[in-house]
Amino acid sequence: xxxxxxxxxxxxxxxxxxxxxxxxxxxxxxxxxxxxxxxxxxxxxxxxxxxxxxxxxxxxxxxxxxxxxxxxxxxxxxxxxxxxxxxxxxxxxxxxxxxxxxxxxxxxxxxxxxxxxxxxxxxxxxxxxxxxxxxxxxxxxxxxxxxxxxxxxxxxxxxxxxxxxxxxxxxxxxxxxxxxxxxxxxxxxxxxxxxxxxxxxxxxxxxxxxxxxxxxxxxxxxxxxxxxxxxxxxxxxxxxxxxxxxxxxxxxxxxxxxxxxxxxxxxxxxxxxxxxxxxxxxxxxxxxxxxxxxxxxxxxxxxxxxxxxxxxxxxxxxxxxxxxxxxxxxxxxxxxxxxxxxxxxxxxxxxxxxxxxxxxxxxxxxxx
Length: 368
Description:
two-stranded antiparallel sheet, mainly alpha
């Protein structure tokens, strides 16, 4: 893709990584139609590039990412993963180990690598035992680290918090210590720390992460919610926490936050959820950003922090589930998988979310 202006990239990646790109670009997102009990499998004729793909939506920007999320969600819920879905994901891999967002023609050379898609594919394939393909993807990620320790979405976009957090999670899933993956002595955690708003920022913003480095840091709810999972040293799927602590406010001492990068980030998320009735607000207004809210749940559970805010956020997700995961009567598997992973992390029931069996809906969306 042609690089877009930095300020807009975070919003674009939000759409792409949740599998909502097609709906957003076509203006189709709105009140969901009444959902049938399960999706009818999508039919793409004999096109091998679609066989086994979860979801009927155009996979141009999110195919591999949503496939990885869907596999992780099904695996976490104890549901079998269709063999054709695994075969689809493996066939999408490029010869050097990377994945692109989607390969419409498996006989041609791969386009630019997509670190988000690759990280998600690595976590999914590792979880279900396809270790060889996962290791190849991890090697490409290792070789793609940028100066400063971070990772970029794709070549030319510049390192960002979301991509770096996802790659760190992939290393954690594979049992690799991310602190040992460095360039010029800087790790991914070094890069994330550099993005954190400190005591020079307004008090309500302290602890948040910016999407990318800039002269005047700005809090980014989506970047913080996704990257904080890696700061908590966890990978997908996040397991339920056995112990909980209250979120802490930064206590600036000598100009420093006085706590770890992880504690400051999850503390910021807890404050935002508390102020906004259990939701991370969308950047464009006061409506809930449900993707960021689900990621905030995963980060707080991973850190074992702010249980009351986690419960409030789950109530928001469940009350908005139909509008978030269904469009024009069909499931958006990336969004549905994210809710399933949040239900799994909080010991909820992904088979009954506002009357929707999300596990069945994801499995039933596979392309034949």
